[in-house]
Design brief:
heterodimer, A: 451 residues, TIM Barrel, 8-stranded parallel β-barrel, 20 helices, globular, B: 521 residues, alpha/beta, Aldehyde Dehydrogenase, Chain A, domain 2, 5-stranded parallel beta sheet, 15 helices, 21% strand
Chain lengths: 451, 521
Amino acid sequence: MPVVDEARLEAALFEVGRRLWSDLPAGTRNPFRAADEKAMELASQDAELKAALFRFVDVVPACRSLDDLARHLTGFLGEVEQPPPPIAVAMRMGNSRAGRTALGAAAATGVKHMAHRFIVGESPKAALGTLRDLWKDGVASSVDLLGEATVTQAEAQRYAARCDTALEEIATAARSWPPRPALERDSAGPLPRANLSVKVSALTPLLRPDAPERGKRDAADRLRELLRRARELGAHLHIDMESLDSRDAVLELVLELLAEQEFRAGPSAGMVLQAYLRDSPQTLDTVLEWAAGAGAGRAYPLTVRLVKGAYWDHEVVEAAQHGWSAPVFEVKADSDRNFEQLTRRLMDARPALRVAIASHNLRSIAHAIAYDRLAGGDGTDLELQVLRGLGDPLQHAIAAQALRVRTYCPVGDLVAGMAYLVRRLLENTSNDSFLAEQAKGRPLEELLAAP
Amino acid sequence: MTLPPFVNEPVLELRRAPVRAQLADALRAHDARGPLDVPVWVGDERRTGDELVSTDPGAPDRVVARAATATEADVDAALEAARAGHRDWGRRPAEERAEVLLLAAAWLREHRLDIAALEVRECAKPWPEADGDVCEAIDFLEYYARGAIEIEAGSELLQMPGERNTLRYRPRGVVAVISPWNFPVAIPCGMVAAGLATGNAVVLKPAEQSPGCAYVLVRALREAGVPAAALALLPGEGDVGAALVRDPRVHTIAFTGSSAVGQEIVRTAAETPAAQKHLKRVIAEMGGKNCVIVDADADLDEVVPALVTSAFVYAGQKCSAAARVLVHEAIHDGLIERLAGAVEVLEVGQAERLDIDVPPVIERSAQERVARYADEARRTGRIAATARSVPEGGWFATPAVAAELPPGSPVLHEEIFGPLLAVERVRDVVDACDRVDASPFALTGGLFARNPDTVDYVVDRSPVGNLYVNRAITGAMVARQPFGGNRLSGTGTKAGGPGYLLQFVEPRVVTENTMRHGLVV
C-alpha cells in the first residue's frame, strides 16, 4: 500500500466534504422530511414505539382489510408503555369499526408513501421512467428485484426468469438514453448502462450455512444463465451479499463462475465486500489473489462494491444466541475505520478491480474521493453508490461534481418489499447511523471527523 | 465456592469452513477405534458381552457398540450398591458434588468431537444435532451443579420469637433413570446429573439402541469422581427397566420415552409392596403430537423454513417435533404449495454428511411405522409432497406432507415419531385452539401470528408445556427453555429449569423451641 500523507488526505477530505455538503439540494440537509418521516423520527427516540412501528410496517401486506390493519396497529401500539399523544388518538380510533377503517386507511397510506420512497416501482417496466430520469440527471442505477424468500425450486426458477426479463427490459430501454460519458466509461473501458443486482439466496432454495457447496451447485446453473444473458445484452450483473450464513457460498460461487472460460469476455460483473465483518480484510485478500490469478485477464475487471453491511442486528443476535463471538464490529467507529482501510486497498488494486464505494456517510464518501485525488485520479475510476430513498440528496451532490454515482433501485410490490423496507427503516432510525446524526443537526466538522 | 453464572455451551460454528474441517477427522478416528464394548457396570465390576449390539442406522452392517445386558442379578447388585452408595454420596456437601459434575462437564468438553462422532454413528444424529446434544449434556451438568448448591441452603421460612424454623432438602435415595436414544447423551445426562447433584445414587438403564452413548456418559461421570456405588450402568431391554421400576429399593424414577411406557411406569410405581416404606416418585417426559398454529397474518417466508426445521430435522425424531400444522383457511393453499416445494428438495442421506437435511430413522421398525402412517394418509387423504430421492441401504424414511385427512385419522392423533407432517385447514385461531385442546398430549406447540392480541389469546388457551411463538418449535436450551409437557405428555416437570431438582429431594422442616425458662437461648 502506498504511503499516504494523512494530513494532506484529511485536508483534501474536508474540502471534498464541504463541497458535497454545499451541493446538497436546499432543505435536504435534514434527511427526515415527510409525515412518515416524522413517525420515523419519533420512533428513533423511543425503542418501544420503534418496535411497534416496524412490526406494523412488516405486517401490512399480510392484512386482509383496513379493519384488520387497524387491529394490528392498535395491537402493537397497545404495547407501548407511555404513548405520545398522537398514539393515544390512534388507540381511541381503534375502539369503533368506523374509527378502525379510517385509521387503517391512514396507516396504509403512510406505509405506501414510505415504501414509494425506497422502492422505485412494482416492476422493472414501471421503473424504467425513473431510471431514465436518473440517468438524465447524471445518475446511474442498479436494479434489485425484491421478492419473497426462495424456499422451493419453482420460486428460484421464477426469480431467475424475472431477472432475465428485467435484464432485457432495462437493456433495451437504456439504448435510447442520452449519452452520459461520466457514467459510461472509465479507464478500463466501457461501463454498461443496464445494471442488475441479484441475490444468490433467491436463486436456490438450498443455501445451507453448514454446507455451502450444495446451494452453490444449485445456484450455479441459474447464475450462469443470467451471466450469459447479461453478456448478450451488454448489461452488468452484480451479485449481492447477504448475511454471513451465505457469505462463503456467494463469494466462492462468484469467483468460480467468473473465472470460467466462457465468461472471460464478459459480462461486466461485480460482488460485494461488507466492511462491518471483522474478517472482511481476509475476504479482500481472497478477492485480490483471485484477481491476480484465476480472474486475471477478464475483459471487464471485477467490480467490488464496498458497503458497511445491512445485517448488523441479525449478525449480533445470531452470534449471541449461539454463544459465538460477533462476526461484525460491535463499535461503529471500528467498522468506519475498516471501511476506509478497505477503500484504500481496493483503490490501490485498480485496474485489476473496479471500485464502487457505497455509503451515505459523508466522511466515507469524501474519504474515497480525496484518496483518489491524492493518488492522481480525477474520479474516472471511482464509483459512488447510494440507496434509493436514503441517498437521494447525496446522489445529486455527487452528480453535481461530475463524479459517477449509481443508485441502488429496488423494484417490487409491497409484499415482496417489506423485508427490504424494514431493514432500511431500521438502518435509518438506528441511533448511531450517519443519517440520524445528520438529522440531529450535528455540525459538518463533526460529521467529517475521523472515526 | 462461587461459580460463575451459568451460560450455555456454545455449539460449533459450522458455518466456518475450518470448524467443519475437524469433523471428518473426528469420524475417521472414531471408525478406526472399532466397535465400542459397553459393560454392565456395577460398583467396580465391569462385565462386557455382546448380547446387545447397536448398529449404524444408515449402514446397518456397521456395528457401533457391543453391550452386555443386565440380568436380574445385576439389577439386584446395582440396587444393593446404590442403597449403600447414596448415603455416602448424599452426605457430601452439595459443593463437593457440584465440583464432580463440573469435572464431568469438562471431560465431555474435552471429548466433544469424539462423542458427537459416536452419536453420528450410533443414532444417525447429523453433526449439528450431535454436537448440540453434547453441548446440552454439558449444560445439564453445569446447570444442576449450580442448582444443587442453591437448594442446599433450603428455603426461607417465617420466623417467630422463641422458635427457629428451618427447611432443608435431603436426597430421596435411589434414582432409576430410564432414557431414550434420540438425545442419547443429553437426556440421560440430564436425569442422571439431577439425581447425582442432589445426592442420590443413580442406576441408569439406557435405550437398547444407544448403549455406546450412555457408556460414554457414565465414563465421564465416573472419571470425574462419582463414587462407584453412586452410579451404575445397566444396558438392556425393557425388562431391565421394568425390574427397576418394580423394585422397592428405588425411590425415584426418571423416565423419558413413549407415552405407553410412561403410563405403565406410573401405574407400577404406584404400588407399595410390603417391604417398601416410601412412595415412589415418577418424573416422566413422554410423547407429544405437537401442533403449530398458523394465523392468516403469518409471514410464510418465516413459517415454511420453521416448519421444515421443526418437522424434519433429525427425521422428526424429537419429542418436540412438529406433527400437525393448523393453518388458517385464508392461507392454507399457499402454505401447502410452498411447504410442498420445500419438502421436495429435502436431501435424505447419511448423518455424517453436512449437506443432508434428513438422516435415516433409528431402526427398521421405525422405518416401517412411518411408511404405514404415510400409506394411511395416502389412502384416506392426500400426500401433498415427498422428498424426491431417498437412498437405499439404511433405515431411510421418506419425508412427507399429508393433507386433507379425515378428522379422526390416526395420522392426526397418534405419535408417529418420524418425518411425516400433517396439515389441517382451520376456520380461525379459535378453531385451531379447540383442536389443540381436544388432544390428550400437551408437550410443545407453535404459533405463527403477528397480532399481539392473537398471541395473548393462544398463550392463554394453550395447554402445552412449551409454546413457541413465531419460531421453530424444537431446540429447547437449558435455562432458556426449561422443557417438559403436560397432560399425557409428562408430569409437568421442567428439565433444565428452576424447580426440576426439587423432584429429586424431600423437604424436611425442623422447628426448634429456643425458649428455656422464659429466656430466648
